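Changelog-adjacent note: as of this version, every example in the card shows the full chain rather than a window. The one below runs 446 residues end to end.
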Amino acid sequence: MFEKMGPVGGNMGSVFDDGVYDGVKKITVGKDIDCVSYIKIEYEKDGKFVTHEHGTIRGELKEFDVGYPKECITSVGGSYDHVTRYNTVLIKSLIFKTSYGRTSPTFGDSSGKEFMLESKNGGKLIGFHGRSGQAIDAIGAYFSLVEKTAAMGGNMGDAFDDGVFDGVKKITVGKDIDCISYIKIEYEKNGNFETREHGTIRGELKEFDVAYPNECIISVGGSYDHVNRYKAVLIKSLFFKTSFGRTSPIFGASPSGTEFMLEGKNGGKLLGFHGRSGQAIDAIGAYFWSVPAPQKIEQVGGNMGVVFDDGVFEGVKKVIVGKDIDCVSYIKIEYEKDNKAETLEHGTIRGELKEFAVDYPNECITYVGGTYDHVNRYNTVLIKSLLFKTSSGRTSPVLGETNLSGKPVGKEFMFEGTNGRNLLGFHGHSGQAIDAIGVYFGTGGI
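Full-length structure tokens:
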């Protein structure tokens, strides 16, 4: 669940890649006369601190401390340019911004070409990569794809912040006469369960179980209003929706006052809560996995036939492919959306039909490959073979034309989902056969 950005700068020095951590506690930067000569980063992972350093210690050293885990770095900016003394392009300055709105001093000389590395959804910095030697030649960053929504409700009570986990298994809610008095959340992280509770146990307790990891909560709704008995604005009701299309009962008073809905972009799952609590739940906000928008990968093949575009579903359960003598004549796809199956088909049913079934939602297709070429019998370019791979490491047979060695025939292509993305839909051209094919990759029900 991360986004890799950059690097920006020059192409000299040795490549470095720190990888991905939970967060950054401190950065030390070495400023030479006309460049950034050195960087040392103190990361945290699983409660332990790990330090990486790059470049050469030279010039003035300055530190930037972060109040991690409550505060995190959300952007890395600076400048780079050709440095005559080294006869190469180097990073000339660095500057950091945090989730608390703080901005570091500018480390180095801010002249040159400016850059800014930041997640589109406010994700936190979790690692660096780049190039270094006598100085810092280039720099890039990894950002966590986590989105923090604002807390809805009142401003009384004590602030709480559970942080980010892998997912949520169960939520227990306490309903008082006119508000939500209590909430207990059972999280999972690295295979272990951790419980957090807020507010005061009072009134009726009710549970909402989630079939995690196959099912996850994707939205948190409810209402808040002034409660005379407490002389404060409190959360009055809560309800939850899941990736399986289920909606919990409404916990608390019937929605009254100001209604709200907390949810991540593109159906991202709930990773944690934050807010305010005391005698009751004053305010509530959430962390969601900020799912990148589905990626449309352009089609390969010919330009004849009729355009088709299935759009985006949550996942694929089964693909049926028709193999003609020298091409793929037909494809039928069984998709799933909102816990319902929907089937779409393209081309013409002709030749041998073969199926490739997927154990969705436990398994998903992460790779679509194949071949295309000119087919004399149709006097046009067609898809000649298809091949699928899944998140479980399974590979389908070659569906379509092969040579005597069982290898696909024609010009090869491959579409692959990155960072856990899976197949969500097909598009292309079809008529008497499959002329061209493209795909959508994203994150659906997994």
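Structural remarks: The first strand starts at residue 2 and ends at 9.
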